[in-house]
Amino acid sequence: MHSNHLLLEEPIRMASILEPSKASFFPAMTKIVGTLGPKSRSVEVIASCLNAGMSVARFDFSWGNTEYHQETLENLKAAVKSTKKLCAVMLDTVGPELQVANKTGNPISLLGDGLVVLTPDRGQEPSSELLPINFDGLSKAVKKGDTIFVGQYLFTGSETTSVWLEVSEVKGEDVVCSVKNSATLAGSLFTLHASQIHIDLPTLSAQDKEVISSWGLQNKIDFLSLSYTRHAEDVRQAREFLNKLGDLSQTQIFAKIENMEGLTHFDEILQEADGIILSRGNLGIDLPPEKVFLFQKAALYKCNMAGKPAVVTRVVDSMTDNLRPTRAEATDVANAVLDGSDAILLGAETLRGLYPVDTISTVGRICAEAEKVFNQDLYFKRTVKYVGEPMTHLESIASSAVRAAIKVKASVIICFTSSGRAARLIAKYRPTMPVLSVVVPRLKTNQLKWSFTGAFEARQSLLVRGLYPMLADPRHPAESTSATNESVLKVALDHGKASGVVKSHDRVVVCQKVGDASVVKIIELED
Questions:
Q1: Residue from 174, 189, 192 nearest 116 by CA
Q2: Residues contacting 134, CB < 8 A, separation 6+
Q3: Burial class (CB in 10 A: 0-12, 13-18, 19+), 517
Q4: Which co-factor is required (predicted)?
Q5: Would you say 350 and 35 are in contact if contact means Cβ atoms under 8 Å apart?
Q6: CA-to-CA distance for 429 and 415, rounded, in angstroms?
Q7: What digits encode the pLDDT tens for the residues 308-347?
């Protein structure tokens, strides 16, 4: 790590701890990804999730068929329409995930110090002595003494739902394991994680490709969460596949780092991917517990300096069944924000948790409090130093806009963009005020029909900390020929006023193109 300071503003006043939290139009600058499932797929619940602060909906294809997820997505569209809140769609692939299929659905109890056999014979009935798995090569990949974890949602802290196995011996294609802890496996599908072992399966499985080219293409997904990304080549192959599908060439790929292999190639993966998801569930059991915090801080720092969004998972596991997080979880969410996370991803908490809406609003409130004490000054200096000189034209404009906004205490930065790149660069410097990204659609043609771009770019900024998109009217170009074309700016300011971000006499920093030049200007609002 390049800094020995915690990114925390000094000094923290005790009085601010005693003051009640104030609600605002933007619950937090940090974004929240919610996984939609059985407990969060009705129009009413999704609408409440959007109002509570969810800005990206994640569809996890490791369970449920395309019809089920399509129904959920139609409900999401209805909720977006009724709440008038934008929401992006993320498709999460299955990847080389090892699974135990429990067709009967009956709970399976395993006793500590007992033995259990893992077999690739899928025709066998699962029991406390035998678990059939979906991978033929496990016996070749493991050796005596290796660690394997099995559970529906691995090691949440309530260790009655996950089991820790140690390989005793390999018998042909079967793997005999000793059981380290007593546990009851419930549900129809359990994940199996072989710790620090290379699994010889493709990152993008045939099933994943089928789902992407049907469901993903039909719904023009904004993000692809690439599970078990282990090499930069995985991202390149996924991008090649998306490009062949035409309409998904703009879909952003977020590499999910889930094991030691992905961690070893982290720098190359970061270069290729559009963003990173730190999958702390699997990684948390692949790494020794004392190393987890170090990985999080180092990875988030690298993402921040590269200006690529970083998403942290598995923060409030206990809220799956409880209305309040534990003290450790509340601190963990705040630390993720102080470490530089762009978004928090909720999995089982919203998918099958009892309190999906409360979980989102609780996480949002914790993020908002942490953002108030985020040491922006130190962060800004660190980022400028890392970028070095000479800066690129766009980087210079972005950092200047943020510096100007802080010096004049602007209430908002408005950035006109068509690709979204300029707005993301501004957000990279973590301004203390929201960045309103006015995405100006561009007209394009494939020789057969005309279409506007812009919707993708607008929704994709919903995963970047502090960035709030707004689609402009295509008749008002962002790259105006003169500085007097203010109509689109007026629309943006009106939007800011309506949402309570901007009021009379406030200062606003505007970043736009005028002809060939990029301009940063400061305007003061009249009554």
A1: 174
A2: 98, 99, 100, 101, 120, 122
A3: exposed
A4: K(+)
A5: yes
A6: 14
A7: 999 999 999 899 889 999 999 999 999 999 999 999 999 9
Whether the pTM exceeds 0.70: the reply is yes
Beta-bridged to residue 450, according to DSSP, are: 445
Q: Which of 440, 393, 420, 417 is nearest to 510 (CA)?
A: 417
Q: What amino acid is encoded at 121 in this protein?
A: D
**Cα(178)–Cα(280) distance, integer angstroms:** 25
Structural domains of the chain, with CATH: 23-96+202-372 (3.20.20.60), 98-195 (2.40.33.10), 376-525 (3.40.1380.20)
Three-class DSSP category at 36: coil
Spatial CB neighbours of 73, under 8 Å, sequence gap ≥ 6 = 57, 59, 89, 219
- Which amino acid is residue 30, in one-letter code? T
Q: Residue 294 corresponds to which tokens in the numbers above?
A: 């170090």
Q: Residue 198: what are its φ and ψ, rounded to 5°?
A: -75, 125
Q: Which amino acid is at 390?
A: P
pLDDT digits (tens, 9 = 90+) for 483-504: 444 677 777 787 777 777 788 8
Residue type for position 449: K
Rounded to 5°, angle at Cα 407 from 370 and 485: 105
Strand partners, 345: 33, 313
* Residue 238 parent element (H or E): helix 232-244
